[in-house]
Design brief:
The structure holds 2 protein chains of 2 kinds. Chain A is mainly α. Chain A is built from 8 helices and no strands. Chain B starts with 36 loop residues before the first strand and ends with a strand. Classes of the chains: A mainly alpha, B mainly beta. The A-B interface holds A 79-82, 85-86, 88-97, 99-100, 119, 121-125, 161-163, 165, 170 and B 107-114, 182, 384, 422, 424, 427, 429, 431-435, 438, 440, 541, 545-556, 559.
Chain lengths: 171, 581
């Protein structure tokens, strides 16, 4: 603690000179970091290689998980936001298919949430700030239902359009 | 480096007969008249069966290879799909890599490319190669060193634009156009200064006449195409701003008339109920001045297009004997299934005869020039329309044909597809698809999804046809010795007798072929034939994009017609070069 205080003092004295304000940040050093945050566990993992061994998973639960209403809303939004223009009814086109279980960026709700909000480098648009959070979760649930990752009891039995088939219908 | 035969302005006499053969191939369509005819004669109908692989080169890519291998002097140039590398290969060293130019393309552009991330190649002129990148830049690269001379931004992926076409270099203009008819773009053709890359003019496909570069010299042949600001008044208010009509296909040039020819793409969205009116100037053939872009004539092939029948296919410029008179014509095999033979000075339709199976129209009215549509085949809200033939990729898509000065026939690689469509409300969000149609395509009558057809343009008749399992999505080349080459999506590269259609030779390449074959004389004096193998494009998206075939509506409905393609081919780009032993 002492040394940290010293650093702050040194910084303050530089400030007095009022010329090198930026050097303050440059010179300060944090010698002991905050204890690990929950956020570190929560981050959606996109790799299964966890250096130094597995850590307990907390995960980010989806408020829409397994909810039939959310999934059917997600299906409507999938057309509304033109997701279907690039991913078709899950078979893909300009974007990759979403009805197989091969997700490059992870298939957990938190992964798909990240995909939608942040976008992905090879052409998935970033929707953060455009789609309200509750709708993102509805989309997450619908996307997962396409590959049968949501409970089949919750996925729509009949589709709105001629060509819309969920995984459950196909099986 | 030798001087290419097309480096400067070709002479007028070039158009009446094949241009003197110098053994090079300096632009994908071979010459300004886009005939893809070669005067090389070492490979003929007798010895072609001995053709062997001379050397190969891996492009390192897994997406569709639609480009043409160019040959300038003793160097070959190829452009890859995204990330649009330009490779220079040394023909004195069996294609050893000389250099590679990497333009640095924004990876996000891959998401807005409607139909795989293809590129149709570069054009050579006066020491430089010119081509377009998926993220909307035109680049000029020094042909000797591979160093970038200039790079100009022309469009924005955030508006759904991409660029995939081949520039045409005329005098000191590099002429380029945009893609994105499925993304609500505003289509244009642009002329750049070849030396500096500065934009000299831009001609939009819709909007007020001043934007379309329609002025006092604009003289369309038909009444339907006359009137003020039709690019605004033939649309619902404002719809022209997101109405498509890109210029992603071919541009050809007649030096004597000093006119460039090209067609504009489909209007957007596909759902026709959302854009009542003729939607000018989508699906239109334009003749313009290369220097200024000024429109001289226009002919709207598909007023109020219902089917995504882009008008972008090649315009082959030849002089033909018609009713005892030599006429300067252009031959345009369109998506709608007709070969349009037009007077290229005036824009008059001399004939429009069917080369494919058509249920969507009954022909072109000779008086008005208007396509006669079959109303029952029009998609719209609240109905599913079946047996729409040809399907959206048309009886023929981008795959360029070739004209033989020997046989007088046009060799057309094409499709035989039909579809069903249900229209939905398209919601415009910039940078995302603007389509409004759920489509499922399937094989047309006979079950063969592709054809390779020899067409007599004067008689307006098919001479012979070869049926193929999949759409013939490759280009073609025909030689003075009556050998025609094309590739199939299974990966067969074929040579056929241009007179009879008899198959003479075939070779199985590593992946499906959708590229443009070319032929050239090597530094050793031998004739070579080159083609890129590497499946993809709209037709091959099911393999190139790893699509899930359980959803037939994938790839804008093309998946449904290509469910079995993954059984026949896998991805991977390789250049093949063949010669006689």
């Amino acid at each position: 603690m002492k040394r940290v205080t010293k650093g702050v003092l040194a910084c303050a004295s530089v400030l007095v000179l009022a010329t090198l304000a930026s050097s303050c940040k440059r010179e300060s050093r944090t010698l002991r970091n905050e204890p690990p945050q929950r956020g570190l566990y929560d981050a959606a993992r996109e790799s299964t290689n966890e250096p130094g061994g597995k850590l307990p998973k907390i995960g980010m639960p989806s408020p829409a998980e397994g909810n039939a209403y959310a999934i059917s809303q997600g299906q409507r939004l999938f057309d509304w936001y033109n997701c279907s223009g690039c991913h078709a009814q899950g078979g893909g086109g300009m974007g990759p298919p979403l009805m197989d279980r091969r997700f490059t960026y992870g298939s957990q709700p938190a992964n798909i949430y990240d995909t939608i909000v942040k976008g992905r480098p090879n052409g998935m648009p970033t929707w953060g700030g455009r789609i309200p959070e509750f709708q993102v979760w509805q989309l997450v649930a619908y996307v997962r239902s396409l590959s049968g990752s949501e409970p089949s009891a919750a996925t729509p039995g009949r589709s709105d359009g001629l060509e819309k088939k969920t995984r459950a219908q196909l099986q | 480096m030798q001087t290419p035969k097309h480096g400067g302005a070709p002479t007028a006499s070039n158009l009446h007969s094949p241009q003197p053969e110098d053994g090079q191939w300096v632009m994908p369509s071979e010459n300004y008249d886009a005939t893809r005819f070669s005067g090389l004669d070492q490979i003929d109908t007798q010895n072609v069966r001995n053709l062997k692989v001379a050397w190969t080169f891996s492009t390192g890519m897994t997406r569709g290879e639609e480009a043409a291998p160019l040959v300038v002097g003793s160097t070959m140039y190829i452009v890859t799909p995204y990330p649009n590398y330009l490779y220079a290969l040394d023909l004195t060293q069996n294609g050893a890599l000389k250099w590679v130019y990497k333009p640095g393309v924004d990876p996000s552009s891959q998401g807005v490319a409607c139909c795989d991330v293809v590129n149709r190649g570069a054009a050579y002129s006066a020491g430089k190669l010119f081509y377009n990148t998926l993220d909307n830049y035109t680049v000029a690269v020094d042909a000797q060193t591979g160093r970038q001379v200039w790079k100009t931004q022309l469009g924005d992926i955030n508006k759904g634009q991409t660029m995939t076409m081949v520039p045409l270099v005329v005098k000191d203009r590099v002429i380029v156009g945009n893609s994105g008819g499925e993304m609500g773009v505003r289509g244009w053709l642009t002329g750049l200064d070849a030396k500096t890359g500065k934009i000299a003019w831009r001609a939009y496909a819709a909007g007020p006449d001043s934007d379309v570069l329609i002025g006092p010299n604009f003289k369309p042949f038909y009444d339907e195409d006359r009137g003020k600001d039709l690019g605004v008044t033939s649309w619902p208010p404002g719809a022209w701003k997101i109405g498509g009509g890109g210029a992603w296909g071919w541009v050809s040039y007649d030096p004597e008339l000093d006119l460039i020819y090209y067609g504009t793409a489909n209007p957007g969205p596909w759902n026709p109920d959302q854009r009542p009116g003729d939607n000018k100037w989508s699906c239109t053939l334009f003749a313009r001045r290369p220097e200024t872009g000024e429109a001289i004539w226009a002919y709207q092939i598909g007023p109020h297009d219902d089917f995504d029948y882009d008008g972008v296919n090649e315009n082959v410029l030849v002089d033909l004997p018609i009713n005892g008179q030599t006429r300067k014509v252009l031959l345009h095999p369109d998506r709608d299934g007709y070969v349009y033979m037009m007077d290229r000075a005036t824009g008059e339709v001399l004939s429009a005869e069917a080369f494919g199976y058509i249920t969507t129209s009954t022909g072109v009215d000779k008086k008005t020039g208007r396509l006669q549509l079959v109303k029952a085949k029009s998609p719209g809200f609240g109905k599913t329309v079946r047996d729409i033939c040809p399907a959206s990729p048309g009886a023929k898509d981008w795959q360029p044909s070739a004209f033989s000065f020997k046989t007088g026939l046009l060799y057309i690689p094409h499709n035989n597809l039909c579809q069903e469509v249900s229209a939905t409300a398209a919601n415009y969000i910039a940078g995302t698809p603007y389509v409004g149609a759920t489509v499922r395509m399937y094989a047309g009558p006979g079950g063969n999804r592709g054809e390779y057809t020899a067409w007599d343009p004067v008689a307006g008749k098919v001479v012979w046809t070869i049926k193929e399992r999949f759409p013939v999505w490759s280009g073609t080349v025909v030689t003075t010795t009556d050998v025609a080459f094309y590739g199939t999506m299974e990966g067969w590269f074929k040579a056929v007798n241009a007179k009879t259609g008899q198959q003479l030779w075939q070779f199985k390449t590593g992946s499906g072929i959708i590229g443009q074959p070319t032929t050239y004389r090597g530094p050793d004096g031998k004739q070579y034939v080159a083609v890129l193998s590497g499946v993809g494009g709209w037709a091959g998206a099911v393999v190139a994009g790893g699509l899930d075939t359980r959803d037939g509506t994938g790839a804008l409905g093309f998946t449904n017609a290509m469910i079995d393609l993954p059984k026949y081919t896998t991805r991977g780009g390789t250049l093949y070069v063949f010669s006689l032993p």
